[in-house]
Amino acid sequence: MTEIEIKQPKAYAAISLATEEQGFTMPSELQTCSLLCTLAASKPNGKFLELGTGTGLSTAWILQGMDAKSKLVSVDNDVDVQAIAQRYLGEDERLDLICIDAGDWIKNNSQHKFNYIFADTWAGKYNNLDETLELLESGGFYIIDDMLPQQNWPEGHEEKASDLIKYLENRSDLKLTKLNWASGIIIAVKLNINL
Ligand SMILES: C[S@@+](CC[C@H](N)C(=O)[O-])C[C@H]1O[C@@H](n2cnc3c(N)ncnc32)[C@H](O)[C@@H]1O
């Protein structure tokens, strides 16, 4: 149960190496990536959004789960980091890599809807949360990680994480599960509250 046996994305090893070489310190864990891939496979013809591309590790796994007709928009504001994702994944026509402040992107794209949002930066998680959840279709997944206490958390962050969990739990338009898996994951599904 603790071994990841599923096939790794083709570019994953090369991205991992480039990530290490660049000294990028915030990659998603393999277990998280495996879950992202499996959940992605449940949304054929889906519209996917990733906030925080990093070097493209999680992006590679989300793409691996997506079918040929699905599309993924992935946003990061660090051009050097996102360049690694561009180098190894940029030829995938399903992927649109955007280098911009994620908060600005969320505000400027309120007309779009997504079936799957992986929010892996401040915007979409600790900032701009309501606007991000507005982007989610009914039945869509909202996924966040790093919800268990992490060594690199600054003072006061534990309280912020706890407030975020309480806020999500109290929203009547979400059904969520907290997973003690990898760095701590929350999966929420958006409800059609008009039903
Ligand atoms: C936790 S890392 C993402 C890791 C990535 N998902 C992975 O699996 O490796 C968070 C990312 O958010 C980006 N970031 C930080 N502030 C941002 C902002 N205001 N707008 C967009 N991206 C931002 C950082 O450059 C970093 O790559």
Structure description:
There is one protein chain. This protein has 195 residues and is an alpha/beta fold. The chain has one domain: Rossmann fold. It has seven helices and seven strands. The chain has a seven-stranded mixed β-sheet with strand order 3-2-1-4-5-7-6, sandwiched between helices. Helix 1 packs antiparallel against helix 4 (79-89). The longest helix is centred in the last third of the chain and has 14 residues, at 157-170. The protein starts with 11 loop residues before the first helix and ends in a 5-residue tail after the last strand. The mean pLDDT is 95. It binds S-adenosylmethionine. S-adenosylmethionine binds at residues 26-28, 52, 54-55, 57-58, 75-78, 81, 101-103, 120-123.
Give me the CATH superfamily: Vaccinia Virus protein VP39
Distance between the ends: 38 Å
Q: Please write the CATH class name.
A: Alpha Beta
User: What Rg is obtained from the alpha carbons, in whole angstroms?
Assistant: 16 Å
CATH architecture: 3-Layer(aba) Sandwich
What count of structural domains?
1
Specify the structural class: alpha/beta
Average residue pLDDT: 95
**What ligands are attached or bound here?**
S-adenosylmethionine
The portion of residues assigned to helices is: 25-40%
User: Count the strands?
Assistant: 7
- The strands making up the biggest β-sheet line up spatially as 3-2-1-4-5-7-6
Number of helices: 7
Largest sheet: number of strands, sense, barrel closure: 7 strands, mixed
The shape is globular
